[in-house]
Amino acid sequence: MPNKKKTSRFALRTVLVALPGAQLLDKEPFFLFAARQIEEVLPEVKVQPLPFAPDWLSGLCAWRRQVLPVIDMVSLYGLTCAADRHFHMVVRVILPAESKDAAQEDKLLLRCVLKVSDRISAGEASADCQPVAAEQTGMNLALIKGIFTHENRLLILPDLRPALCAPAAV
Amino acid sequence: MKKVCIVQGGPFLLGIDCDNVIARRTWAETAAQTEQKGLIFQLDALLSQQAAQAVPDEAVCLELRNGEERVFLIADRLAADEVEMSNPPGPLPSACPALTARLCPQVTIWEELPVLLLEPTQLVATALELGQNIGVRSPAKERADAQAAVPEPEEDDPFFPETEEEEAEDAPSEPQAAMPFFLENALAESANSAKADEPEQPPPGQEAQKKESAAIDEETFKQVMSWTVTRFKQSRRGQELHLGVEQLPSELAGMIKRKGLNKNVIEYLMEQIVLRCKETMSRKKQGGSDAE
To answer: How many CB pairs under 8 A join A and B?
Structure first.
């Protein structure tokens, strides 16, 4: 039996990625991920460009014998970032499977690599976050699970599923 | 285990199944073959959606199987040849654009780099989708380049009089540039086959006239070809196209008259071009539905 308390506490652990130099709704924006989504942070990757790809899709890279798409988060969200250095985060995204057969797996695990600033920090989700209407940010709503404010920070919960499934729709 | 030939074009790395590679040459060697048959794609230009650029002589040119036909692919360099893939190829990640997945449905890893595996039969469809001759070296340009390398014709050459060359320089090149490349290619074939067909299959009742008539020169041929293709493109699908010399623009009709070219021969040429266009269209249509 899994320890419910432990699982719940683990779910609250987060990873924040700053966007140095950016301002959104007069606050400093951060991408917010659940810690368990992040598989690895890579200081360098060899990215092979992909023909006919949109700007936000930097290319492909090889990671543990898998070929993963590399997504430029700043470009995907139409933001600005003055970071001097970038890291690449291997992230996993769970998708509902297309199969209607209940006997089969009902979820699909996809991985991608996110190009982000090197300002990555681990923490815990704060209980006093306030939700913000995503429409106010002018970002593509399909790519956002939620937006919250905490002190002078604007926390963006990315939804990468549209980018990973149907790039043309983004 | 499949062997793959890996080429680089600009920033792109592409693998090609060695079974599909007929020959590997330099561009200089390929360009010297004036009899080359098949479309010429420039990898870097095609994948970065740009018009074909000047190709250095030392660039690699692969002759590839494209179903029953063959195509040429120019790349900057051959990164590796006859590579045995230890990683089995897999499908592209779902985030990749549909056009990429069509041209390169599979990907593998070579020296820690993802390598897209090219499906040569999709080159034509991809170029068609991109349009505007992106990444395709025009057969007409290849011919022109080849001609440029040939010594200047003498002044009394009836096929290339100097005045006509000047006319050609002044003539607008826009219709030629706007022509879809597959039509241009079909017409490049027509240029050879229609010319070759002429003595074998003269139009009825034209044999005697043809003897008196001057031969069609390159410039007239190109202009008639360009005009006919434009008319073909403007016509409705399924509509029967009847073209005559009297429909030609007055400048072109005047030029034909001045050169003493036979009306029936010109009309026969138009008819042949329309036929080739129709053949190409139906072939492409068939190819498209097969692919689906």
So the answer is: 74
Letter for the amino acid at A63? W
Pairwise CB contact (< 8 Å): B48 & A71? no
Query: Residues near A28 by Cβ (< 8 Å), separated by ≥ 6?
Result: A18, A19, A22, A152, A153, A154
pTM, rounded to two decimals: 0.66
Q: Which residues of A touch B116 (CB under 8 A)?
A: 50-51, 60
Residue B92 to residue A67, Cβ atoms within 8 A: yes
CA pair distance A167, B291, nearest whole angstrom: 22
Integer Cα distance of B162 and B290 in angstroms: 48
Q: Cα distance from B126 to chain A (closest Cα, Å)?
A: 11
β partners of residue B143? none
ipTM over 0.95: no
Task: Return the DSSP state at B98.
Answer: H
Interface test with B, best of A42, A46, A50 (most B CBs within 10 A): A50
Q: Does A5 touch chain B (CB under 8 A)?
A: no
* Minimal C-alpha gap between B94 and chain A (Å): 6
Number of Cβ within a 10 Å radius of residue B230:
15
B205-220 in b/e form (b: 16+ CB < 10 A) is ebeeebeebeebbbbb
Count CB neighbours of A111 within 10 A.
19
For B104, the closest chain A residue by CA position comes to A51
Phi, psi of A38, deg, nearest 5: -90, 120
pLDDT tens-digit profile, chain B (292 residues)? 789 999 999 999 999 999 999 999 999 888 887 566 778 999 999 999 988 888 888 899 999 998 778 899 999 999 999 999 888 899 999 999 999 999 999 999 999 999 999 999 999 889 888 887 788 876 555 655 555 554 444 444 333 333 344 444 443 343 343 444 444 554 444 444 434 444 444 444 444 344 444 566 767 777 888 888 888 777 776 667 778 888 888 888 888 877 777 777 777 777 777 777 777 777 666 665 544 3
- DSSP helix/strand/coil, B156: coil
Residues on chain A touching B109 (C-beta within 8 angstroms): 62, 65, 67
Q: Does the beta carbon of A109 lie under 8 angstroms from any beta carbon of chain B?
A: no
Extract the runs of DSSP E, i.e. beta strands, from chain B. 3-9, 12-17, 21-26, 40-42, 60-66, 69-75, 77-84, 90-91, 106-110, 113-117, 136-137
